[in-house]
Structures
1.
Amino acid sequence: MRLISVFLPIVLLGSDPWPQWRGPARDGFASAFSAPASWPKTLALQWKIDAGEGYSSPVVSENLVCLHSRRGDEEVVSCHDRASGRLVWTDRYISPFQGNRYATQMSRGPYATPLIAAGRLFTVGVNAVVSAYDLSSGKIAWRRQPAQTPSTGQLFCGTAVSPLFDDGRLFVYWGDDLQGGEVLALDPATGKTQWSWKGEGPGYGSLVPASIGGSKQIIAFSDRTLFALSPGDGRLLWKTPFPDEWHENSVTPVVAGDLVIVSGARANTHAFRVQRASSGWQAEKIWTSTDAPMYMSTPLVDGKYLYGLSSRNKGQLFCLEIATGRTVWLSEGRVAEHASLVAAGPDVLVMAADGRAWPFKRTAGHYLPGPTYELAAAAVYAHPALAGKQIFVKDTNSLKAYTLP
């Protein structure tokens, strides 16, 4: 069932969007955010709305903020006026979900972050229902899903790979650890398959576009391997094992030049050098960090340095030297159970699962935190979105918009 609200006047805020997982370039850098020279003591709450459950992050266009969430057995897609939070349009569809028996404390999804591209909003539900909407009106253009609904009968906890738009194609990765997985390149206008690659079931980290050695690649993280496909035809370029006993490959890979960096709570953090050899593409492990294993937090690549949240010591921020994996600094322990990191001007903004947020300086010298803000009373597992002077925070129950002075 699709419900369209009465259209409301929309204020054009004049900033570039936050259109997808981890922002404009899918790298955690808030290039459309007016970062302050110095952070204020408090952030002003601009508006708050009831948002339903799920870990899907908000996405932002010039005038809308859009969200994918759950209410009972329905998944709900909604877009709101950025300035006021007022509903512009909404759609909902039946998608009951039975979570994994080992993850009873988790939300029932959705987990994947929507995507704004080519005048449309694309969503991927916890059951791998892929939908395409006209962004301005909410009219549905097409919807499709795999022939078999992903199973949570083994260790899989639900579809979490966020969709990717690159070179005019929409990329999705669906499946599970029982039936295997499939990466698809879809025509964004029609949803028709242009190519597909079948292999291992997906992990939870999202697809990442890269250009390595003059070759465009789509980097993907399965439940047991790290691999890359050619975006033009789906050809497998390279693959390297990355097993996890619980199939919890949940950190999105990050790319620094010809290095691809991945991590797991039980596997530590590794950098693979990807290069072309006479026999084809190869991924060679060049360093491992035991100081900075990551669980669900994706790190930031910042020039020569990598910033992230280690699962060691109950949550410990770190800075590593990318070329060598050398630990540059570590914060004290117990800073956050889980956190999302966003590069905002000269700082990194940390959004912790307990609702606290704070900036620290992007410096290789030492950990230098700024003021702490209490932005949510409920758990925050969704990545924040930063655009203009606004910070959008999705917690267990609500979506809030905060503003800088």
Note: The first strand starts at residue 2 and ends at 3.
2.
Amino acid sequence: MAEIVITTVGCSLITKYLEANEDRILQSKLKLYAKERYNERTVNDLKSLKNKLFSWAKDNIPNASAEITSLQKIQQFLNRPLEVYLISTDSIESSLIAGILKDIFHDHDEIKIYFNPQTDVIKGLQVYIMNELRSRGLPNLIKRINDIAGGFYKNVAFNISGGYKGIIPYLALMGFVNNCDIYYIFEESEELIRIPRAPVAIDVELFEKYLREIVSLQDGVSYGQFKKENYQVIEELEQRGLVESADDIAYLSPLGNILFNSYTNEHFIFYVTDEVERERGKQKEIERILSTKFWDKQQRDSKTEIKTQGRGKHRVYDDGNNPNRIYYFERDDKVYIYKIFENEETAKAYIAEPLNEENVIGKSQIQKIRKQVRSDV
């Protein structure tokens, strides 16, 4: 089985190239775009420079960059194939180098590189505006890494040999929290250092105690108003380092995002009306479906049909060869469940009922259930 290696991309390739070559054209071009955010047009304009850097790097493997050196050493150390996902900052230089690295390893038998600028150039991940980094860039980074891992980090490692120093501590923290190996190249010696898995305990009770408030902080809330209404909550979360604020907006800190991400990898968060919550206690098969299948978006989508009759139009999860049905909709990445049935005929009869999503949202409360995956079921 291949090891998934999350690899941050820095500028060491450019640095090493300029140490070996006096290239004023490249220097002036990069200086011009030094603080410009990633955009496809500019990267295309730099195609000739990209080709020049690619040719030089190809001739100087494995020492052309920290990423190249470390990936080859990790592959040799593990002695198995690597699936490498490159993570670029929201900058011209980092995205340019990520594209070069992908091309360099294009024909490599043991190291497969994945890099899609649309998903792997992380919006807001930059080192010039701290508030944007913390409120936008780091949450986007955490989400992208979790998407790559699919929520399961057993076969995932972090390679922090490249990348900006201001971002690397957060990657290391994410590795610790998710019980992953971490690799980096030690300074100029080019010796591979491995930090073995060292799991960090998550305070599950804290997240369950303040689940509603923590979810609201993900999107950012008015700090003054939130503190007025939830004084004890925000005091405790701030003391734990889970909340930060800027310009009267409170939001989860990078640590809070990383820890909460770990919590949601094990727990499915959804919204239900009081009626559905009462029925959940009676319908054990629905409870089992929620914890083993429905929480998985891919499974949920594959078993969902749009049902219409009269004025009714509903998204219905049909579990298959059984009478269980779940009526739900999704809004802003939140799942709202407004009807559950263990009787197929009763479920069919409800299709004609009109749905008022705003009414459901107004009556819904946040709930969670522990996910059960293959090893649990």
Note: Residues 220 and 251 are 5 Å apart (CA to CA).
3.
Amino acid sequence: MRVVVFISVLFTLLYGLNLALLVTLHLPWWRRLWVRRAAKWLPVVAVSCAFAWALARHFDSPTIISVGAGGIACILVLMMSQLVALLLTSPFRGVELLIDAVRRFSVGPSTAGVQPADRRRFLRSALSAVPLLTASTASYGVMRSSTAARITPVNLRYLGLAPGLDGFKILHLSDIHLGSYIDREDLEQLAQRASQFNPDLIAVTGDICDHMPWYLDALRIVEQMRPPAGVFASLGNHEHYGGLDQVLRSFERSQVRLLVDDGQTLRVRAADAGATAGTAALFISGCDDPQSMRGPESLAKLRRFVDKSQHNAPVEAFRVLMSHRSQAFDYAAPLGVDLTLSGHTHGFQLGSGGRSLFENFYPDHYIWGHYQKGNQQLYTSAGVGHWFPFRLGCPPEAPLITLSAHEPHSTTT
């Protein structure tokens, strides 16, 4: 229901803004017959796609789900690209209309709108290129979102790491969003590729499945990788939205251990650790998701979840916290949590050089990538999947985190 409301509001807003700009500042475009016809039929096509999507979800038809959801997504992305193009070109059209109005007032209507032909031709060509550029970028972003999640190698170094954990590998799966844009075959292929790296433990940080009838299937696919230390998961906001009772029943029928404000101590050893390394204590924990982050109350709730998840943590254990929200790092680090694994943001699906383009606007959100406070570290995944298919410079990923010992530099006198 939340998705339906979101899509309806977004479509109405985009359609209204585009239409308003076309009939006011961009009349030359609006006078073109194909533009008016597109504006007329666009709502009909959108409703048809939405109806097909809803019908396919009811009858559990993956192919039609993809067609319906993909059609809606393409319409919304192209509408957003059109809005960007109209907003970028509106100042130039506004200046042009202002000049025409001044000329009409000063020299009369007979010469208003008259400019050298070459100048007008150049201006129209330049402005026409903007919609083409934004539409091409939008189409590329949709296409990139359909690429398979890459397995990103992430090496994290720790002072005083136990020998048994040197080389310990954690496969971090977050925001799989099995459903409209990621199907079971995609997840199976990812599991097959990831198994080749022989992870020691798998951590799943929420938003596993958006189509509830497939939730247990998703867990079964992940558990089949059978890492030596096990598969553990925490809750995301979509688990709450989709129906927590059904989610809990699915976990009860699987071998994936769900940790909700709780943790478990394991005796583990990296697969490639030396013969004399021995086992080490690892405390894997997971905290609940506050479902939304709206002000101090949500942050206080998240802090309580983090605190509760660490109650049984042994002092000597290496501690890993699974939290869907990366803001938990601010509360986990002071408690001595060595590694926090998060997701949720998808890197805002726009990035460059391994960082979100919005990093400077939201520095306290830890949007994408590796962060560190002393010896405590965080990795926020861009996510295996998405609930809206658009990515630029922020590809889907499944980080493979390898722990390694980092010895302090020796000093000579």
Note: Residues 409-413 have pLDDT under 50 and may be disordered.
